[in-house]
Amino acid sequence: MKKYIFKLCTFSIVGLMLTSCDPSVDAPGADDTSEITYLPLITLEGEDVVLDCDATSYSDPGAVASVAGSEIELNTAVSGKYFGGTSVDGPDSYSVAYSAFNEDGIPATDFRSVLWPECNGDLVTSIAGMYTGTVARNGSTPDGYSDNGPFIIKDLGDDRYAISDAHGGWYEYGRAIGVAYATPGLVLKANNIAANDFTSEGPVTTNTFGGTNTFTSLTVDPVAKTLTLTVEWSFGYTFETVFTQTDIYYN
After folding, report:
1. d(CA 120, CA 114)
2. What is the pLDDT, as a whole number, of residue 232?
3. How would DSSP label each residue in 189-223?
4. Eight-class DSSP state of 118
5. What's the rounded Cα separation, in Å, for the pair 191 and 61?
6. Rounded CA Rg of the chain
């Protein structure tokens, strides 16, 4: 590749003299060679995946990384959206990232979503399952904050349940700013579902924003197939979410 050194040309108006210079001069050691780099390409095998709720394992369809038609090393990383897993090993919404680099260190990345739904409980002996959600903040539900999801209530065993977003998607779906602003991690103990007797294992923090979210109540209606969750956020907001159990699993 030819290199250039640029020199400043000066003018003298008084005396009508012009000092000229050559505006481009080859730099010492410059050459006329150029290089071509081939960008890496990642090709996914198959599409996004939705598993059966009673699946026992996940087999990734995989992907192929190549440069100029030749296969290269592929890296794969898994991230659980709500429950933090680094492998697809139970109910959650996952992002599978495939990445590769060419010889010049230029990267390529592609993604696959994998939804492992939770099997729906009967809301008499189990509140586990998949839900849509309609959320009110301090009593207000604007347009776009209804029928969002999916939300996962994960059965942890021993009558313990983890809720994917204690804010009912107010920020993730309503504000459409993503899971980085959700409030995962709320774990409830079902002491008596019929009596709406639940206790929390502790407050949880909202992603990015911070603050403390304290569980207030969970009311179960097995006929309507709804759960009404109320939490208090330390920033002065009350979130009340009506979760409606659904058989439609979607990303």
Report:
1. 18
2. 98
3. EEEETTTTEEEES--EEETTTEEEEEEEEEEEETT
4. P
5. 41
6. 28
Measured CA to CA, the distance from residue 186 to residue 175 in angstroms comes to: 21
> Is residue 19 within 8 Å of residue 12, measured between CB atoms?
yes
What pLDDT, in 10s, does the model give residues 29-65?
Answer: 555 567 899 999 999 999 999 999 999 999 999 999 9
pLDDT tens per residue across span 123-163: 999 999 999 999 999 999 999 999 999 999 999 999 999 99
pTM of model > 0.70: yes
> Contact 68/38 with Cβ under 8 angstroms?
yes
Domain spans of the chain, in order of start: 40-116, 129-245
- Compute φ and ψ for 154, nearest 5 degrees: -95, 130
Q: How far apart are the first and last CA of the chain?
A: 48
Instruction: Say how far apart CA 91 and CA 184 lie, in whole Å.
Output: 14
The 10s digit of each residue's pLDDT in 187-212 is 999 999 999 999 999 999 999 999 99
Residue from 119, 217, 121 nearest 166 by CA: 217
Pseudo-torsion of CA 187, 191, 195, 196, nearest 10°? -10
In three state form, how does the secondary structure of 127-186 look?
CCEEEEEEEEECCECCCCCCCEEEEEEEEEECCEEEECCCCCCHHHHHCCCCHHHCCCCE
Domain 129-245 falls under CATH 1.10.3470: no
Tokens of 216: 């207030």
pLDDT digits (tens, 9 = 90+) for 58-92: 999 999 999 999 999 999 999 999 999 999 999 99
